[in-house]
Amino acid sequence: MTPPSVPILGGTGALGFGLALRLAAQGVPVVIGSRSAERAQESAAKLRERLPEAQVEGLENAAAATAGPIVALTVPFRNQSENLTNLKSVLEPGQIVLDATVPLAAAVSGKATRLLGVPQGSAAEQAQEMAPEGVRVVAGLHTVNAAHLADLVEELDEDVPIAGDDKAARQEVKELIERIPG
């Protein structure tokens, strides 16, 4: 039985693309989401070049978010709020948002320089506050090295802490992440 598709919003970025690649390598259908459908389709084609048998498509974020029960949000923290605001009309009760955003400030070179304060306490708590009623948020993938994810030769040996208020949602995210060896 084919597992449900996993929409990965921010799938054109390093973490999102690496996650899409690793899940696709395990036979999980993925939908790469981006603000630009064209960029999403380009990333899907790039993934297919590396994994010709992959079940992958590229869509604009709102369309991608409707494609599966667990929606991975792998955008930079500065884009989290905008993305969730734009998705309010398409996220459905029962869906899970796997929030991988980390509230870090970046210097000109793009390297993280300091942790940003989040009034809600964490990026995931902010996401839960912004999500439509009935949409569950689980925080995870914050400690995963994006470059290692994107290198299929690299053997992963990662601990992936997850957190969220809903035990069933945490379990579903755990099972999804465990599909990736290591």
Helix content: 25-40%
Q: Rg from C-alpha positions?
A: 15 Å
Mean pLDDT comes to 91
Distance between the termini: 23 Å
Helical segment tally?
Answer: 7
Number of β-strand runs:
8
Named at the architecture level, the CATH assignment is 3-Layer(aba) Sandwich
Ranges where pLDDT stays below 50 over 5 or more residues in a row are none
**Widest β-sheet, arrangement of strands:** 3-2-1-4-5-8
Counted up, domains total: 1
CATH topological fold name? Rossmann fold
Q: Give the CATH superfamily.
A: NAD(P)-binding Rossmann-like Domain
The structural class is: alpha/beta
Description of the structure:
The protein has 182 residues and is an alpha/beta fold. It has a single domain, classed as NAD(P)-binding Rossmann-like Domain (Rossmann fold). Helix content is 36%, strand content 18%. The strands form two sheets. It has a six-stranded parallel beta sheet with strand order 3-2-1-4-5-8, sandwiched between helices. The chain has a two-stranded antiparallel sheet with strand order 6-7. The radius of gyration is 15 Å and the shape is globular.
Summarize the structure.
By secondary structure, the chain is of the alpha/beta class. Helices cover 36% and strands 18% of the residues. The chain has one domain (6-177): Rossmann fold, CATH 3.40.50.720.
List the helices and strands and how they pair.
Layout: E1 6-9, H1 14-25, E2 30-34, H2 37-50, E3 56-60, H3 61-65, E4 70-73, H4 77-87, E5 96-99, E6 104-106, E7 112-115, H5 123-130, E8 136-139, H6 146-150, H7 167-177
Helix pairs in contact: 4-5
